[in-house]
Write a structure and sequence with these properties.
globular, Farnesyl Diphosphate Synthase, mainly alpha
């Protein structure tokens, strides 16, 4: 299988909202964002794989760091096309290493004391992805970087809310400990799936944080870059719809796997596309 085909298959198999947003792209940029997304997916899978011990995860991520700096024997299959991105766009090895550093946090860290700590994680695994993505999308106004940072934080917070139950199975709690304490909601309550008023207040707090970041991103998006940021705006509309659904449903995250159907995603994508016709 060609490397480009492998990247496409990784993206397709992920069934990601990010991958869905690529319908707004074509040609070389679509190929390159697919390569970049495959890189993100591969390193994320390393950290999430229960079949790998911590030592193995660190070693494999270190190999990826090395591959960003130059070719070597038995390097990962996607390493060469990922390096090609560095010579095609204003993307540095440090920008990709930031994402790897975020993934490494999942190897060792299971709890976050406060939002300031969680924000660092969200920046590395989501905003840093956005900062690379906009270089591939192309933009004119440097303010787009601030847009990418805010949007990345909003998307990751939405993921955290949606995946509370799934993350708990892996003994990961991303909800800041200070937020749990604010409503006198304990880890044992979370493990027991307690969804009383304390839980609803807690989740509404996290949702409000995400909503504020979505609003910040919307305000930061430069008018002249709205068309080039169409893939990102498709993601924003899909994730905001997902967040609204969870909120209106009182966050039944222990009972339901919140996802938007392909038809729903297509509708939100079409709504963004129609803005330019």
């Amino acid at each position: 299988m060609k490397t480009s085909d492998a990247a496409t298959e990784i993206t397709r198999a992920s069934k990601s909202n990010l991958a869905f947003a690529f319908i707004a792209m074509s040609g070389a940029r679509r190929r390159d964002i697919t390569t970049f997304y495959a890189f993100c997916r591969v390193i994320d899978d390393i950290a999430d794989d229960d079949g790998r011990d911590q030592e193995t995860k660190r070693r494999e991520l270190a190999i990826w760091r090395q591959s960003l700096r130059g070719e070597f024997t038995n390097e990962p299959a996607l390493a060469k096309p990922v390096r090609q991105l560095l010579s095609t766009y204003p993307i540095t090895p440090e920008m990709l290493e930031e994402i790897i550093t975020g993934v490494e946090m999942d190897v060792d860290i299971r709890r976050y004391a406060a939002w300031d700590e969680l924000r660092v994680y969200c920046h590395r695994v989501a905003s840093a992805v956005g900062l690379v993505s906009i270089e591939i999308f192309g933009y004119k106004n440097p303010q787009c970087r601030d847009y990418a940072i805010a949007l990345g934080l909003a998307l990751q917070m939405t993921n955290i809310i949606r995946d509370v139950a799934a993350d708990l199975k892996a003994d990961r709690i991303y909800l800041p400990q200070e937020d749990l304490a604010r409503f006198n909601y304990r880890e044992d309550d979370l493990r027991n799936g307690v969804t009383d008023s304390r839980f609803i207040q807690l989740m509404n707090l996290e949702a409000a944080r995400a909503e504020s970041l979505f609003a910040e991103a919307t305000n930061l998006l430069p008018t002249e870059d709205r068309r080039s940021m169409l893939p990102a705006e498709i993601m924003r509309s899909i994730y905001q719809a997902l967040l609204r659904r969870m909120k209106l449903d009182n966050f039944r995250i222990f009972e339901k796997d919140y996802r938007l159907s392909k038809i729903e995603k297509a509708g939100w994508a079409a709504a963004q596309l129609f803005k330019f016709f």
